[in-house]
Write a structure and sequence with these properties.
Layout: H1 2-26, H2 31-38, E1 50-54, E2 57-59, E3 61-64, E4 69-72, E5 82-85, E6 98-101, E7 104-105, H3 111-118, E8 126-131, E9 136-140, E10 142-163, E11 168-180, H4 182-190, E12 199-202, H5 205-210, E13 219-220, E14 230-231, E15 244-249, E16 252-266, E17 278-286, E18 304-311, H6 313-324, E19 331-350, E20 355-372, H7 375-393, H8 403-423, H9 436-461, H10 466-493
Parallel strand pairs: 10-18
Antiparallel strand pairs: 1-10, 2-5, 3-4, 6-7, 6-8, 8-9, 10-11, 11-16, 12-15, 13-17, 14-16, 15-16, 17-20, 19-20
Helix pairs in contact: 7-8, 7-9, 8-9, 9-10
């Protein structure tokens, strides 16, 4: 028994030594990693990296294409629009417009002066606001923690496929996220590290296993992740190049994460106006981290906390380059944008708290507005269908007494329309509702059948009253054509 105890103790010592050596070997040549790992007890599992004390009101952002910089989003009267309100969500929702603060008309203030009013450490402790809807409220300055991830760059290389059947798009992209880490910099400084501008070091796997970096929480809302064409944090196989790196420049120590390759994203398409439809493609980026004024709902903070994902200039510039150089053949890119979006789930079940709560999360949407190139459908579907219908309709100009000729011609035209429908069937999306093109084809079928019905009716009643048959035929020929044109215009231009 004593020998077994000695053997077990020796084994644990060897195992611990081997494990320590493995960690050392893995982070060998990575002084930043080693220092951070040696001081891992000084860092929280999840760090909210900025402490603030203000009203907790944040303004939305917008890209100014003329100035080529990000500015505060404003309404048509130049009043700023709220992105997120931490402490007063009842009166100030996302999209609320603030008209004045402490009597100052915000439409006349620059972005810098506007942000300065709402910055932390307010001199007067509270702010008197007037919203554009006329409501006047007072907001108090309170302490909270903030984490603001930066989407430094998003390069949309191509949209390779827009699949209406699956409700998905396939894109090729490159992107970079950044998170400033003053806490890690402080640890390195205390260990007497010298820095050169532009230094970069790959984060070794041991760091990712033992220290949770906040930047790991970011993810694209993809419905499928294919390792063969995608490079990112979710890859199970070890990648040659590191996905998360530490960088130091301009006095800031950051964690930088890259995500690239081919991504697959679900979309909500609206094809009711097909083929003259416009679509809004959305690529959603989430953090999975709750923002709340209730500290009991914040897992790794002892106060209220806010988490943002905010684009920088590079992200807007990358999207606009795609707009100017679009490889899509079937679509025109009308505009691109990055929009903030607050996800509010009032019936969210928290598995850690074991109760239903209201979950608020700040995300961003990369938005691409596209319009279908419809000339293909005009030349290859709409015009041929119209010509076949004309052949059937001109039967009504054949004298009513030649009903056999009329019937034969109208039947041939109807069968031709049915046959041609199989030719372009694959060009039309299969949906549970009728698109504009579906309505047009269905209308054309109905009016293509009318000459056939008229020919059968003529054969029945021409011997009784040829004059009456001719008169009815003339009215249908004239008014039927006008009704068809009016209904067609209503389908495509309503």
């Amino acid at each position: 028994m004593f020998k077994r105890l000695i053997l077990l103790t020796f084994s644990l010592i060897v195992l611990n030594f081997y494990s320590s050596n493995s960690i050392a070997n893995e982070c060998d040549g990575s002084p930043w990693n080693k220092t951070i790992l040696d001081n891992k007890d000084k860092h929280y599992e999840f760090s909210f990296l900025e402490e603030r004390n203000d009203s907790g009101i944040f303004f939305d952002f917008k890209w100014d294409k003329d100035l080529k910089k990000i500015i505060v989003r404003r309404d048509k009267d130049k009043y700023p629009i709220v992105r997120f309100s931490l402490f007063n969500k009842l009166d100030i929702e996302q999209g609320s417009v603030i008209k004045s603060v402490e009597g100052n008309d915000l439409s006349t203030l620059s972005d810098d002066k506007l942000n300065a009013i709402f910055l932390q450490n307010l001199n007067f402790g509270s702010l008197k606001l007037e919203l554009k809807n006329g409501k006047k409220i007072t907001v108090e300055a309170k302490p909270y923690k903030l984490n603001d991830f930066k989407l430094v760059n998003f390069q949309l290389n191509s949209i390779q496929n827009i699949d209406s059947k699956k409700g998905a798009i396939e894109i090729s992209f490159e992107s970079f996220f950044e998170n400033n880490r003053p806490d890690l910099l402080d640890t390195l400084i205390k260990n007497n590290f010298d820095y050169d501008e532009g230094n970069e070091e790959a984060v070794c796997e041991v760091i990712l296993d033992q220290i949770i970096l906040p930047i790991e929480a970011l993810e694209y809302n993809e419905f499928k992740y294919d390792e063969d064409v995608r490079k990112g944090l979710k890859n199970k196989t070890k990648l040659k190049d590191s996905v998360i790196n530490f960088t130091y420049d301009k006095g800031n120590f950051r964690s930088v994460r890259s995500e690239s390759g081919v991504g697959f994203f679900r979309q909500e398409f609206d094809f009711k106006k097909f083929p003259f439809d416009k679509q809004k493609l959305i690529i959603n980026v989430t953090s999975g981290i709750r923002s709340s004024s209730d500290k009991s709902l914040i897992k790794f903070a002892d106060t209220a906390a806010v988490t943002f994902i905010t684009p920088e200039n590079g992200a807007f510039l990358g999207l606009n380059k795609f707009k100017d150089k679009n490889y899509l053949k079937e679509w025109d890119v009308l505009s691109v944008d990055i929009e903030s979006k607050e996800i509010i789930d009032e019936n969210y079940y928290d598995k850690d708290l074991k109760k239903n709560i209201t979950h608020n999360e700040n995300t961003i949407n990369l938005v691409i507005n596209i319009e279908r190139e419809y000339k293909h459908y005009i030349y290859k579907i709409i015009i041929p269908v119209f010509l076949i219908l004309c052949v059937a309709w001109f039967v009504l100009w054949i004298p009513t007494k030649h009903f056999e000729t009329r019937l034969t011609t109208s039947m041939v035209a109807l069968l031709s329309l049915i046959a041609y429908n199989f030719v372009f069937a694959d060009d039309i999306p299969k949906l549970q509702y009728l698109t504009s093109l579906d309505k047009y084809i269905l209308l054309s079928y109905v009016f293509c059948c009318i000459p056939t019905f008229m020919s059968i009716w003529c054969s029945r009643f021409i011997k009784i009253s040829q004059a009456k048959v001719t008169r009815v035929n003339s009215k249908i020929r004239t008014f039927g054509g006008l009704i068809y044109l009016v209904l067609t215009m209503q389908i495509f231009y309503s």
